[in-house]
Amino acid sequence: MGTTIKIRLKRSTIGAPSKLKKVVRGLGLRRIDQTVERPDGPATRGMVAKVPHLVEIVE
Questions:
Q1: What does the pLDDT read at residue 1?
Q2: Following CA atoms 29, 48, 26, 44 in sequence, which dihedral angle do they give, to the nearest 10 degrees?
C-alpha cells in the first residue's frame, strides 16, 4: 500500500483567485482546520505546491 500525507487547511480561501479555490476543493478541503489524507504522489504534491500559503502538511 502506498504512503499518504495529511493536509490541513490553515487559511480561508475567501479572497483567493478561483483557480486556487478549485485546487483547495480538489484536495477535498472545505473548512479551516480540516485535515484530509491523500495519497503521496506527484499530483498531490503539485496541488499542495500551488497553495502553500493556504495549506500545510501535518506530520
A1: 59
A2: -120
The structural domain count of the chain equals 1
H or E element at residue 7: strand 4-9
Cell representation of residue 31? 473548512
Average pLDDT by consecutive 10-residue portion of the chain (59 residues)?
91 96 97 97 96 95
Domain containing 36 equals 4-58
Report DSSP letters for 17-39, one per residue.
-HHHHHHHHHTT--STT-EEEEE
Q: What residues form DSSP beta bridges with 39?
A: 4
What does pTM read for this prediction? Answer: 0.91
